[in-house]
Amino acid sequence: MTALTIKDLRYKHNQHLILHDVQLELAPGKIIGLLGENGAGKTTLMRLITGSAKGKGTIEVNGATTAVTRKQQVSFTDHLNGFNSGIKLQQIVKFYQSVYPDFNSDRYQELSTFLNLDGQQKLAALSKGTREKLIIALTLSRQVALYLLDEPFSGIDSMSRKKIINSIIKWTPDNATLLISDHYVTEIAPILDEIVVVKDQTVSVHKGADEIRDQQGMELEDYYESLYAGGDTHD
């Protein structure tokens, strides 16, 4: 069974075509970089996978095909905008425990300690970086088939970012698939098994990291940059 299968996906918003003819198949147990310029449709693609946006086509996550059943198989970085700014972190954790039966409290405690999170702190008091660390901890504490991390490191300082990236494999279940949308291609490249590039309103590239290094003779970030400098995206 595949972790994710997308066939003939098309999405329009306000009569504007965002994505078309998206075909994608991801195997279980992989860490994959979702790359593309700002506005390419990466976040939209993730929202379509979770079912929070609705397009035309077929999306299947670990055998689940409806939006309701897919949500049980996917953990997506929630930016916590629905919470009162005065809420404490430990109250957010309790909410997650009550809403998600697959929420692993022990894993959250480990992640919380690793990321130096204080359960007594209020959401409003968090810096952008600490808020993102909280989001990462909450997302990875669920036990699901597919994790979607949408720009998870943008507000985190460089040293902490490297520490988290290097430890992400440890926090991802062996048979789970992790899809990371990120601008820090150089930093996430060492942990990636594959890359998926959203370009020209579709998935234009899906390749293994080793394939790119061996056959193209390039590092991932150089290959990615070449796609915007007249490189061949279909070889």
Short description, anyone?
With 235 residues, the protein is α/β, with parallel strands linked by helices. The protein has 9 helices and 9 strands.
Describe what this molecule looks like in 3D.
A 6-stranded mixed beta sheet has the order 5-6-7-3-8-9, with helices on both faces. A 3-stranded antiparallel beta sheet has the order 2-1-4, covered by helices on one side. 34% of the residues lie in helices and 25% in strands. With 235 residues, it is an alpha/beta fold. Strand 6 (146-150), helix 6 and strand 7 (177-181) form a beta-alpha-beta unit. It has helices spanning 42-50, 67-71, 89-99, 105-114, 128-140, 158-171, 185-188, 209-216, 220-226, and strands at 4-13, 16-26, 31-35, 56-61, 74-76, 146-150, 177-181, 194-199, 202-208.
Number of helices: 9
SS strand fraction:
15-25%
Unreliably modeled segments: 231-235
Mean pLDDT: 93
Q: How are the strands of the largest sheet arranged? A: 5-6-7-3-8-9
Instruction: Provide the gyration radius in Å.
Output: 18 Å
Binned, the helix content reads: 25-40%
Please provide the ordered H/E string of secondary-structure elements.
EEEHEHEHHHEHEHEEHH
Main sheet record: 6 strands, mixed
Tell how many strands the DSSP assignment holds: 9
Shape: globular
Alpha carbon gap, first and last residue: 27 Å
Structural class: alpha/beta
